[in-house]
Amino acid sequence: MTTYADRTFTPPERIRNFCIIAHIDHGKSTLADRMLQITGVVDERAMRAQYLDRMDIERERGITIKAQNVRLPWTVDGTDHVLHLIDTPGHVDFTYEVSRALEACEGAILLVDAAQGIEAQTLANLYLALDKDLTIIPVLNKIDLPAADPDRYAAEIAHIIGCDPGDVLRVSAKTGLGVEALLDEVVKQVPAPEGDADAPARAMIFDSVYDTYRGVVTYIRVVDGRIVPRERIKMMSTGATHELLEVGIVSPEPKPSQGLGVGEVGYLITGVKDVRQSKVGDTVTSQRHGATEPLTGYREPRPMVYSGLYPVDGSQYPDLREALDKLQLNDAALTYEPETSAALGFGFRCGFLGLLHLEITRDRLEREYDLDLISTAPNVVYRVLKDDGTEMTVTNPSDWPTGKVAEIHEPIVKVTILAPSEFIGAIMELCQSRRGQLGGMDYLSETRVELRYTMPLAEIIFDFFDALKSRTRGYASLDYEEAGEQQSDLVKVDILLQGEPVDAFSAIVHKDAAYAYGTTMAAKLRELIPRQQFEVPIQAAVGSRIIARETIRAIRKDVLAKCYGGDISRKRKLLEKQKEGKKRMKTIGRVDVPQEAFVAALSTDSSADKAKK
Questions:
Q1: Better pLDDT: 123 or 323
Q2: Which of 134, 160, 263, 602 is the most buried (most CB within 10 A)?
Q3: What's the CATH number of domain 383-487, 3.30.420.40, 3.40.50.720, 3.40.1190.10, 3.30.70.240?
Q4: What's the CA gap between 23 and 113, in Å, rounded?
Q5: pLDDT at 94
Q6: Cβ count near 598 (within 10 Å)
Q7: Interior CA angle at 236 toward 320 and 133, to 5°?
Q8: What is the largest CA-CA distance in the chain?
Q9: Residue 585 CA, distance from chain mean position
Q10: Which has the closest alpha carbon to 217: 69, 12, 59?
């Protein structure tokens, strides 16, 4: 052990930093559970399934949302080693979490279900790991299942990463079979972290959380030097300095330690309550004799989908702002800015990496911060060139320019679909109906095919995945990445209630899909808006042209009930009087749209409950 001023640090050559990359439901969290048990950091009494999935949402949905790190002791050939495991999410919307975890590691376990084979999202994360020159350990999980075909999928993995099929390890995370041998391989294959123990301290922040009592808890990976308690540290991007109140490790619960040396992963607490002081990707150094060059940070995530979040009760607006501040600390991919809506009041325009990210964020805000929220229909970012040569960015239909438009550019993505070859026809038909262009097709084996398409992002954020799953009986897997933009023929569809546009229901769609959106939304609102004392027309319009109409019939009072017998002229007089009253009411009356109608009309059918599993 190396000692500095009576403080003991683990030598870097005995440290192994690795993560697990896999598709949803391929057994990442179960494998992490077995590792916790086998290394003895969690005893049998405290053990529970999905131990590292801390959030209720994660446990309910059976998916990992947050990357979690844990320190594991392991002995090989009589030598004690320290393993730092980071359990990563498998969903395409949380790729940013994976990229940050990979930055803190030297190796990755590629975990594949022996009954399903490699999936599109696993492939995407594998390429991320290969880009960062990580050592890949291929592993087949669930070999105890009756449907498992390890020989076939070992050959498939070997073909993709260029190894021998015999090098693919075989484990059962459920029973623990082969997990000890896997930990031995991690020690043998993953390189030890490199860094200068005598250089000025440099540590990278890869995650943060907010604790009500202790303030911001920052998770770091030390690259050079050492981080010890009671010294003053500096955040290199902001220049802010703090005193370190506590430095510790996560094993799997936080434990204070004497400090962190080269290659170690742990946490630090400064007592700071300002959530903007700890930025993911920032470099931490000592205030005295600190480093001058920061570590290369992460690529800033670009939001793919925008949606408005509004509190149902307007008085909760400040609470929503505070909640978003705290959540952004824990989820660096979330962006937001204030906006107002005539129908919904004050709220925030939030940027997300995908539809599941939107659903999870809204769910977390409602649960963890006790808020009631309405989210508007998600849309993407458009670049609009006007006739006068000016350019503007549109993230909200209400920002759509009113004058003449020369060109409209929309974001496109490269889509990778892996599926059994029998579904090629159904997949191609679906992609072409969503304006997709076929980029290529490869057979991974006789029965599995990889299709590559270029598609507008707006076509896949809503219900594309659900449609894909239903056409392939659940066998297809999907991954997408941004691929620039293309010029498109887009229009803004306005929904008018009694001739007045309601900004919350407006949408930007392709010209060919405008009629379908208009008729669907008008029919939906006719069901949701309660009948008024007067007739209410619901219209869908593109510019000044009405493309669809529905009518909510008026509630009529029977003014003739008191008339029995007598002259018809008296009855006609009463009916004429009622008609005049309805006409006057229609000119001054306001259509009452209940909040439930907004929620129901704007709610997306493709929800996280149907997430990519």
A1: 323
A2: 263
A3: 3.30.70.240
A4: 9
A5: 67
A6: 23
A7: 95
A8: 111
A9: 47
A10: 69
